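Justification of computing resources. Each target in the renewal requires a structure prediction run like the one illustrated here; the chain below, 272 residues long, is used simply to show the kind of job we budget for.
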Amino acid sequence: MTYRLRRARGLALNKSLHATSQRVDWRAGIVWLKTVGKPNMDSRMRFTLMIAALWALLSAVPVQAQNRVVVELYTSQGCSSCPPADALLQDLAQQRGVIALALHVDYWDYIGWKDEFGRPENAARQRSYAAAGGRRSVYTPQMVIAGEDSVVGTHPMDVADLIAKHSRSQKDVAMKAVRTGEKITIAATARRPAKYEVKFVSYANKRTSAIKRGENAGRTITYVNVVLDYKTVKKWDGRAPLSLAANAGKGPIVVLIQRAGHGPIEAAAALN
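Resulting structure tokens:
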């Protein structure tokens, strides 16, 4: 079942939804839904309200242009549970405080359809996150928020809560990244010494695939911000200010400064 995701701003939540009443506190960026009457709200309506709450939360979060929250979606064309998460990522990509990235994995290729964008490097990164967090297994769809927290990619309210949490948190690195043609210049300072890695993530803005076999056979799905490459360009100890100029090639790039060992992402910027 496909759900259309709608922005909460201006959404008429007070329509007659059977016997459901809602109260929205926009000043705090919080949507509080109180259900009365029928105990089993229609699942489509529940999902719509959850998405409305997601937009309410995110629209109220203050944004610093070069300290946006990175959301990594681990997904696969061979996963029947993934299309709703892929759709959610499309909406997150429209949020100015979020950098949304789709990392397609290859470990479901054996069940009937080889993911056109699947990369073993993406699966390895996901497994490294799991190891860093003390988890034994990986799954799809999974979202990793700011390199630190993970959540099921079809739980929009949990995603919104974590994005809001990381938007408010103080990061250990302040970064400015500027692109001139194929060259990127980075200046950064750290609040405390640590092992940091400067990473370039190249991606395709939008790709559409007609899936012919596997769990999503017969579906045509559009994906956004599909990761093509993820590489470390510099290791930094944070003791002295960082000044770096590097060639990034053509196409959009995300610049990350992340704690070594798949730790928290301390700074991020998207450069087209």
